[in-house]
Amino acid sequence: MSDRRFSPLRRLFLVPAAAVLCFMLLPMTVVVLIALGESATYEFPPRGLTLHWFSNLLHAGPLLNALFLTSLPLALTVAAASLVVGTLAAVGLTRGRFLGRSALEVFFLTPVVFPQILLGVALFLLFARANVPLTLVTLGIGHVVICTPYVIRAVLAGIGGIDPRIEEAARNLGAPPARAFMMATLPLLRSSMLSGAVFAFIVSFSDVNIALFLSAGDTTTLPIRILAEMEWNNDPTIAAAATLQVSIISVLLILVQRFIGTVRA
To answer: What is the pLDDT of residues 44-89, one digit of tens each?
Structure first.
């Protein structure tokens, strides 16, 4: 009965929602069609479709090196590090009772709202002042700074939805506090931790602002390489590289969504 009553209202909101979705997907659609086009320049709409530029990508050494030797290993490492740091911080903020806990929570989330271009400048000046050379490690540190807040927020939301009596029951059965948390609470946080790790991977994998200041000659990430290539030529191979990057993120999101659904079921 209620479905029939609110169905016109739902249809009313469906139209602007579909319009916003199309607007968000339009830039990616343009990039994909340019990568599939026959023209040797950025042409939209394409006059014909071909996979030539993806084949050409296989021989584009700088782009492939930036993807497989820098961006992917870096994003995976940053996701793992952010998962550990963010989970520990979220648990400490939830279970800890100390002065300034709310202020510390806000502080942990500042990299999300703080302009990342300014954060990149600050990190660059910090490493330069400390005479630390720019390497993949310094770039990873910068990415952990901007990725950890996403893990913290996801895990905080997950802990907030867990009944604390579950862990209390484990303690009443004789389990030490650490073991009770590991056996009773942590398994219930798997979907939240996985979501946070995925966000951390995506942020690191697609970052430009931090990498723009912390990348060295041998640690250029794929977004920075694409940006540099676009300044000097309009080869659709660049669009093919961007399409590959978007495809990796999309496939990852689909797999994680299916996995989280399995866990919750």
So the answer is: 787 878 888 888 888 877 888 888 888 899 999 999 999 999 888 8
Q: Which of 207, 255, 238 is nearest to 70 (CA)?
A: 207
132 plus 218 within the same structural domain:
yes
pTM for the full model?
Answer: 0.82
| Residue 134 · residue 175 · CB < 8 Å | no
Number of domains the chain is built from: 2
Q: Do residue 81 and residue 134 come from a single domain?
A: yes
What per-residue confidence (pLDDT) applies to 90?
85
Reading phi first (left if > 0) and then psi (alpha if -120 to 50, else beta), residue 176 is in beta
Alpha-carbon span 213 to 139, nearest angstrom: 9
Domain membership of residue 185 as a residue range: 52-264
Token pair 């100390």 is found at 98
Express each pLDDT in 186-208 by its tens digit.
777 788 888 888 889 999 998 88
Candidates 213, 69, 92; CA nearest to 146 is 213
**Longest CA span, the chain:** 71
Residues 12 and 66 in one domain: no
- DSSP 3-state assignment of 96? coil
> The domain that contains 93 carries what CATH number?
1.10.3720.10
Name 49's bridge partners: 37
In this structure, the answer to whether residues 253 and 140 fall within a common structural domain is yes
- For residue 60, the number of C-alpha atoms closer than 13 Å in the C-beta half-sphere is 22
